[in-house]
């Protein structure tokens, strides 16, 4: 129908979980982590998951899983299958930290670990274990520069265009700022920042010699 906006594309969500595992039960923990991956694979919207140990002598284990969007992620997280799986590992696995990566964090791709063994989901073109490189977050100053590079030209252009709107300059300051932020926020979120971070990705993730 003319005039109706097209529905927004779903935004994939990556969840990173840090756990401490009883060092005397690593064999059980290995099977337990793989069982969780296998359970998640059967859920709609599943895009992949993986897990990795911080080191041979470390009790820190990291798990990543990715879903098509928030609703499919929450279906998995609230499922009785996941509740049963979590309960089965409580005697040797203690959850330390959980992070959801989407929005600005998702643009910069900052998982805990450097690489994981990943099993693809039904929505991915391939199946089976693969080695998937995962980069660490760029420094905060690089993130700030990236955001500024997107925000400054957008704000400049918007300020210039709003100058042609009759009566806009006579509005109260709060109203002008409210209107400009309402207009610019979705533009920055869905178009400008993803494009800027894609263009600057080699610089953002360049390793110091």
TrEMBL record:
Record GO terms (molecular function): monooxygenase activity
Answer yes or no on keyword DNA-binding: no
Swiss-Prot/TrEMBL keywords = Membrane, Monooxygenase, Oxidoreductase, Transmembrane, Transmembrane helix
Q: Would the keyword Transmembrane turn up in this protein's UniProt record?
A: yes
Region Disordered, residue ranges = 118-137
Query: What is this protein identified as?
Result: Antibiotic biosynthesis monooxygenase
Lineage top rank: taxon: Bacteria
Ranges of biased composition (kind: Polar residues): 124-135
Where exactly are the transmembrane stretches of this chain?
145-165, 177-197
